[in-house]
Amino acid sequence: MSSTTATEPILIAGVRVSPDHLIGGVRVPSPDRFVTLSPIDGAPLGHVACGGPAEAAAAVGAAAAAFPEWAALGPAGRAAALHRLADLIDSQVDEIATVECADMGMLLASLRARVIARAAMNFRNYADLAVAYQERDWHSKGTWNRVQRMPAGPVAVITPWNAPFMLSTWKVAPALAAGCTVVLKPAEWSPLSASLLADLTVAAGFSPGVFNLLQGTGERTGAALVADPRLARISFTGSPETARQIAATAGANLVPFTGELGGKGPLIVCEDADLELAAARAAGQYDDAGQVCLAGTRLLVQASIADAFLERFDAHVAAHVLGDPRSPETTIAPLIHPEHLTRVQGFVDRAVSDGHALLRGGHRLDGLFFEPTLIAPHSNDAEIVQSEVFGPVLTFQTFTDEAEAIALANSTRYGLSGIVFTASMGRAERIGRALRAGVVWVNTFLVRDLTAPFGGCGISGIGREGGNYALDFYSDLKTLQILEGSVG
To answer: Residue 283 CA to chain centroid, in angstroms?
Structure first.
């Protein structure tokens, strides 16, 4: 591993960001580095450390060394540290939002108003859930029994490039609250805000090694990290293809693994729905340039209202403003990276080449912008229907009755989310129960209760995050059984 002489920070609108790892409480550079680009103008923001096997081993070693002391603090002791961290996040919202906007391209107003605040909520909520946990007690066959949680050990957390700060805390918070120590590897396309999180853990007084930041690429850094047999858990958000590789490595070491792996959610509009509401929410699926795993990207509209829906939908889409994410007028920001823009364009070009109807959009614009696009496929088996695009591209299909809507909704290998618009409670319950998805919203979208389970079916994921489901994942459960009357 390289020397521990820290690299000069990257400066983004006055905010200083370290490009190095944080290992055992110390900033550690790497001889190998990669460039992170701003989606806003394509300009390089700086060179970031790219770790390899030595840095990965050091990070896991630091987490393993810090684990006994952190675990011994107990839920209340850890909660105090996590609440300090949450308070620091709240005090740095503008700085974190500024860096994330420059590095990932998400709307600055959205980051300031809700996304970064959600990160602080994650730490507070999981800290409080861990403290409030009630161990199960019962009597059975002459014994007194209690189920106890034991912190699992050091864990690896690998996060995606969209909403990187908040989604990192979504995993890091329950791991720390459960008593695990963490090695976080953020995505190489948006690595900088995670470095701010590392700084805040130090400022919050975390002991060295409780939280470690490992920068680098998936192929080199991530692969070395997940192969370490000292890990007790691995949590990943990203593509099914990468998840298969991680799962194979985790399986070889018998390390429990959870993955949130994207979606191809249906947005179902029934003939009794509030069309204005449904059309507005459907147009809102283009938010964040469609780079949202939970988005309802397949519009399934009852045939009897298709024309009326499209008229309203077109009006709402026309109101979108593509532009600089730092501008308050902008509603759709650029895509994250030139490679991703090429990928999105490829999906649309192939769909048009295959004869699917292009109802609107379909073209890239200057920079990394892509028009809000709507495609009416002539086959439900089409790639544009069955594969996750992860861009501002929706499909439009019609159905005649509930049975057909459900069949279309469940026809992909994904199963992360679903959205239903109807005025009937009975229909909402029937369709909601029938959809194969981890979460189904009715007449709303993206409302999250942090205590609810979150995850996917099919290739959308393995396991569940959220609430006690996440705390259980980062714990080993033990039953303590005592013969009644044998102890005083």
So the answer is: 22
Report the C-alpha gap between 165 and 416 in whole angstroms: 21
Extract the residue ranges of the chain whose pLDDT is less than 70: 1-4
- Taken in order of first residue, the domains within the chain and their CATH numbers are 10-261+456-479 (3.40.605.10), 265-442 (3.40.309.10)
Rounded to 5°, the CA angle 160-163-168 comes to 60
pLDDT digits (tens, 9 = 90+) for 19-56: 999 999 999 999 999 999 999 999 999 999 999 999 99
Task: Give catalytic residue positions.
Answer: 260, 293
Distance CA 170, CA 175 (A): 9
> How far is it, in rounded angstroms, from Cα 312 to Cα 97?
33
Tens of pLDDT, residues 8-17 = 999 999 999 9
How far is residue 215's CA from residue 100's CA, in Å, rounded to a whole number? 16
- Give 387-415 pLDDT, tens digit per residue: 999 999 999 999 999 999 999 999 999 99
